[in-house]
Amino acid sequence: MWAAMAKFLLGTAWLLDISKILLRLGLLGILMATLIFSYGLYQARSNMRRLQQQGMPMPPHHWLLGHISVVAKIVRDLPPHTHLLIIADQVRRAYPHLDTAFYLDTWPFSPPCLIVISPDLASQFTQDKSLPKFKGVRKFLKPLTGKKDLVTMEGHEWKQWRSSFNPGFSASNITSMIPDMVKEIRTYKDIIREHAIAGDIFPLEAPTLLMSMDIIGRIVLGHELKSQTSYNRLTSGLIDQLSWCNAGMHSNPLEYFHIVRPIVHQYNTWRMNSYLDPVLRRRYETINQRPESRYVADLMMRAYMRRHDLDDTPTRMNPEFSEFIRSQAKLFLQAGHDTTAASIVFTLYLLQKHPESLRRLRGELDAVFGPEATATCDILEEKPHLLNQCSFLTAVVKETLRLYPPTASARFGIPGFFLSDSGGKMLPTESCLVVAAHHGLHHNPRFWPHADKFLPERFLVEDTHPLYPVKNGWRPFERGPRNCLGQELAMTEIKSVVSVMVREFDIHDAYAEIDKARGKNKRNLLVNNERIYQISRGGGHPSENFPCRAKLVVVKEREGI
Q1: Could you give the CA distance from residue 133 to residue 135 in angstroms, rounded to a whole number?
Q2: Residues of 394-423 as b/e, b for ≥16 C-beta within 10 angstroms?
Q3: Coil vs helix vs strand at 542
Q4: Residue pLDDT, tens place only, 434-468
């Protein structure tokens, strides 16, 4: 008995010693973390105070909080989940003199930023000189694409692969693929028709996302995903993964410690890869059967074969290339469906809100495609080039993308590189994240007359007209060498879908109905007096997935009889 008790006491003493060691290590870790945090805080605040003393533009800066209180007040007045892209415009509205660029210090929620809402200043670091991409973009894309993707490549490697992809996204190639798009638009139209007949409220963005995924699946993979009519684990995994991705900046501090996120990322990666890998493998093994194919995956595979002097297709892909091509395919699938679907929804919303523009567009479509509205898909399949004759349609889409640009452009500032404003002030970029805030720039009345109004005519007027867009002012796809590779595809898809939908359907938002049913106060759900606004989920998506009702267009109503 005594021996057993002694053994127990010795064991307890050992545990106490271990506990003391762990406690000391824990306290040391806390001390180190505190010192690192304090140093980072000091660096951020002192650098910003120095810029303030030099007369650099910024909101009132607090020695301890920086601009956190300024941004917190703005966020507090916005509806839940409002996209952070909107904050730059809200700062400009609160401080109207900050109408070209301003510094913003919200460390540790984000790096110190130089926010740019001027076309000329934006062109200086994206077109005149292309600054390096923000590392947060890689953090955002990694759960989607894996190790390496075209968006975050730099230097020679990026140039090499970008040139390989260009033919697949050229205007002529995209036009030739409109018949492929129409096949998916037909299915989408049938789904919306069912809702119109039922007369129910439904979230328009949900079927639009699936349609857009099916279209980009055809363009990239030459493959039918059939997401609109059945469950597809690649589509489901990619859309879900996107909602869990982040660039390392959050308005809610708890998001920095989200323990479930890595598990969800791993599960969705398995869903995507287990579907995509066999598709890509079969495509690679049969590449010689499609020598003239312009599908993006085929272009990637042939470029790889040329660079490795492969005359005949190997029976198996090199594992490194297999991982690479999978990453690019997922990148194009993500970029090709996400913001495009949202832009389609915003376009249909704005047309219904502005009946004069809708009437003018329908008149143009009647003139180009003929009076039979339900024949649009047939005509697009036969004569896809007719879409290029719809100038007002193009103007409508451009104006939608001006009001609701899907993203922003973030680059790393570098020592010795300054932006020069029209007054000759030199704005240093060193130690700053330099952001071309497209939403803020597109809504800036200094550069856009009637900036908050939907005026497609501004893209049709002569260059002497007051509404004519300012040089470098329209940049939803960014400009310069790192502009969006898929912009021709996005514009063509949006125009194709809208040309079909507005001829057969009236679509009206149902926000008022759902708000009343839920007992919500509309005043707390507006951004710039609009109930529809962009929310955070990858690119800027419509709030609440745009609840709406669809109605079949009656010919007599369209003719005003």
Answers
A1: 6
A2: bbbbbbbbbbbbbbbbbbbbbeebebebee
A3: strand
A4: 999 999 999 999 999 999 999 999 999 999 999 99
Which has more pLDDT, 139 or 508? 508
Token readout for 337 is 């469906």
Q: Residue 290 half-sphere exposure, CB side, CA atoms within 13 Å?
A: 17
Question: d(Cα 294, Cα 486) in Å, to the nearest integer?
Answer: 14
Using one digit for the tens of pLDDT, what is the confidence trace for 155-205? 888 888 888 888 888 999 999 999 999 999 999 999 999 999 999 999 999
Choose from 260-264, 266-270, 322-326 the range with maximum mean pLDDT: 266-270
User: What's the mean pLDDT in 108-128?
Assistant: 95
- 20 vs 28, 418, 474, 555, CA distance in Å? 12, 53, 62, 82
Strands (E), 139-219: 202-203
Using alpha carbons, list the distances in angstroms from residue 198 to 144, 203, 531, 552, 555. 37, 14, 25, 11, 20
Cis? peptide before 167, omega within 30° of 0: no
Q: Would you say residue 23 has pLDDT above 70? A: no
Given the structure tokens 């973030």, which residue do they identify? 410
State both tokens at 208: 């639009």
Q: Which amino acid is at 39?
A: Y
Q: What is the 3-state secondary structure (H, E, C) of 304-340?
A: HHHHCCCCCCCCCCCHHHHHHHHHHHHHHHHHHHHHH
Tell me how many degrees the CA angle 479-182-351 measures, rounded to the nearest 5.
60
According to the model, what pLDDT value does residue 147 have?
75
CA 272 to chain centre: 20
Map residue 201 onto helix, strand or coil: coil
β-strands 409-412, 534-537: how paired? unpaired
- Cβ neighbours of residue 19 under 8 Å, at least 6 residues apart? none
> What is the C-alpha separation between 381 and 51, in angstroms, rounded?
58
Asked whether residue 560 carries a pLDDT value surpassing 50, the answer given is no
Output the DSSP codes for 410-455: EEE--TT-EEE-TT--EEE-TTSEEEE-HHHHHT-TTTSTTTTS--
**Residue 257 has what DSSP assignment?**
G
Helix runs in 126-168, H state only: 135-145, 155-165
List the structure tokens of 310: 């492969």
When pLDDT is cut at 50, 70 and 90, the band that residue 335 belongs to is confident
Distance of CA 345 to the CA centre of its chain: 14
Element (H or E) spanning 63, and its range?
none
* H helical segments located in 448-506: 487-504
Write phi, then psi, for 383 (nearest 5 degrees). -130, 70
Contacts of 306 (CB under 8 A, 6+ apart): none
Q: How confident is the model over 214-263, as pLDDT tens digits?
A: 999 999 999 999 999 999 999 999 989 888 887 665 555 555 566 788 89
